[in-house]
Amino acid sequence: MLDIRRLHMLKTVAARGSITAAAQSLALSAGAVSQQLAALRHDVGVDLLRPDGRTVALTEAGRVLLEHVDRILAAMEEAECAVAAVKGTVGATATLAALPSTVARIVAPALTALGAEHPQLAVTCLVTDQAQLRELALGTVDVVLGQRYHHLPETSPKGIAVSPLLDDPLLVVTAADRSDDRPVALRELATRDLVVPPATTDCGQAILHACHQAGFTPATRYVTADIAAQLALARAGLATALVPRTAIDPGTPGIRTAPIEDHPILRLLFAATRHTETADPTTSAVIAALRTAARQGPLADLPPAKRDAT
C-alpha cells in the first residue's frame, strides 16, 4: 500500500521544483525527503522523477501518479472534514496566509475576535504576497486572505473554493496641503508624478490598465510595492499614490485621500480554502471572522463583494 506521506512529498517536490526546496517547506532535511522518495520509487517499481538542469521534473509515470495523488489527498481531507463536522467543534490549529495590506484593518481584528470566541484555536498567520493559492493547494496553509483585481481573469487553482469578502477601491493619495478631497478623474493624474507598484504585480497592472482606459500612460516617478513607502512619498508631496482603502489608516497624518470617479480601480478581497463537500468547522470559523472584520468598523461603508462564493 502506498504511503500517504510519500505521496504528499512527491506532490511538494513537483510543485517546488527541487528536493531541497521541498524539504525546506516540509521542515525536513533533503536527505530525509530523498529517502522517502526512493522508498516510493521502490513501492511503484518505476522512476517518478528525473533531473532537469538544476531542478527535477516528473517522469511520465510520475505525472500519472500525481493525478491520482491529488484525488487521494482530496478524499482524505474530505473524510477529515466530514468527521470534524460530526464533532461540530472548532479545532486546535489553523494556518492563515494574508497580504500585508490586510493585516491592520482585517486580519488583526479577526484574530482578536477568534481568540475570544474560540480560545482553544491557535492561528498561525503568514504575512506574504507570494504564491498564496499555490501554498493552499499544497496544504501549507488552510486559509488564504488574497486579492484579485477586477480587470484580471480569475485564475484560482483547481480544487480551491473562494469566498468573496469585500470590494476594496484604490484611493488617490496626496499631501494634506492640497486644497480639497473631491473625487478625482483619473485623467487628472496624467500630469502628475506617480508612485506605483511594479508593473509585474497585480496592482501595478491594474493601475496601468485603468490609466490606459483613461487615455494616458502614467508618469511613473517612483516604483515600489511597499505601501508605507508610497504613503511617505505622497505625504512629502513628491508623488501621488494609488493605494487600496483597506491599507490606509484613516488617522495617518499628513495625507489626503480621494476616490476615483471615472475609472475606479477595485480589488476583490477574498478568503480561499481547499474545496470540500463538507464544510470544515475550523476554516469556516476563520473565514467568518475575516468576513465580519472586513464589514465592520472603518470598512462598514464599503460595498460587500458582488459575487457569490464559487
Describe the structure.
The protein has about 300 residues and is an alpha/beta fold. It is about 40% helix and about 25% strand. It has nine helices and eleven strands. Strands 3, 4, 5, 6, 7, 8, 9, 10 and 11 form a nine-stranded mixed β-sheet that branches. It has a two-stranded antiparallel ribbon with strand order 1-2. Helix 1 (about 5-15) packs across helix 2 (about 20-25) and helix 1 (about 5-15) packs across helix 3. The longest helix has 28 residues, at about 60-85. The two termini are about 35 Å apart.
Tags for this entry?
disordered C terminus, two-stranded antiparallel ribbon
The counted number of beta strands is 11
Structural class: alpha/beta
Distance between the termini: 35 Å
Helix percentage range: 25-40%
Order of helices and strands: HHHEEHEHEHEEEHEHEEEH
How would you characterize the largest beta sheet?
A: 9 strands, mixed
Specify the overall morphology: globular
In DSSP terms (H or I, runs of 4 or more residues), the helix count works out at: 9
Strand content: 15-25%
The chain-level mean pLDDT equals 88
Radius of gyration: 23 Å
Low-confidence stretches: 299-310
